[in-house]
Specification:
Largest sheet: 4 strands, parallel
Strand content: 5-15%
Strand order of the largest sheet: 1-2-3-4
Radius of gyration: 22 Å
Length: about 220
């Protein structure tokens, strides 16, 4: 990776590339690339492009904290989960619809999606109905409102879809709706976060300090 970063730095110095970015790196690999660039005073990675949506929130564990700490922008792909969060699909319904990207058979990489995908979709449809906004707008608005997210890449197939997607930037998601979507899509905390979350409570329970007499009362 060091040689690759050296070549990329040359391209930036020559004016052939303006900014460096990467996609789908593990956190350790991104951190390694940033360290190498900083160590040599080379052009560094300025933007990271991961998958992120209400159905796929894995980057919140390590990658988002890393990007925020190191000042790396985050521009996410598949914020609508291959069209699953646009309103065309219904909980319990078919996942392959003619005339859509799902007909190609690659839109729903189930191994990546949350196991409660249909519950998430149900809540999204309820919230969008309450707000009078399309499901696509609500799903996009939720994504760009999350900490550390710089922007989102949409894959509109026509002008109508693009117009609807762009409208997500014209309004704000209220706290109650944001919380409802965040809660239903919240992934299970994994180690070490799962251990850290309750660390202070466990320590406080384990330490039983004896009551000491007040010296002012003799």
């Amino acid at each position: 990776i060091e040689e690759t970063l050296r070549v990329l730095d040359d391209l930036v110095s020559q004016g052939k590339v303006r900014y460096l970015a990467c996609s789908n790196f593990e956190a350790w690999r991104l951190m390694d690339a940033l360290w190498i660039s900083d160590h040599h005073d080379w052009s560094r990675i300025e933007c990271y492009q991961p998958q992120y949506s209400l159905l796929v929130r894995d980057i919140e564990d390590e990658l988002i904290p890393l990007c925020r700490y190191k000042g790396v922008g985050t521009v996410v792909w598949a914020p609508l989960a291959g069209g699953y969060l646009t309103g065309k699909y219904k909980p319990g319904g078919k996942r392959n619809l003619e005339g859509t990207r799902s007909a190609d058979g690659w839109c729903f990489p189930d191994p990546f999606y949350a196991p409660n995908a249909e519950a998430i979709l149900t809540t999204l449809l309820e919230v969008s109905d309450e707000l009078g906004r399309s499901p696509a707008q609500v799903a996009l608005r939720w994504v760009v409102d999350q900490p550390g997210i710089s922007s989102a890449i949409v894959g509109a197939r026509n002008c109508e879809q693009l117009k609807d997607n762009l409208l997500a930037g014209s309004w704000e998601l209220d706290e109650a709706s944001n919380q409802k979507l965040t809660q239903v899509s919240s992934p299970r905390a994994r180690y070490p976060k799962s251990m850290e979350n309750a660390m202070f409570d466990r320590r406080n329970d384990a330490v039983k300090l004896p009551s000491l007499p007040d010296p002012l009362k003799g």
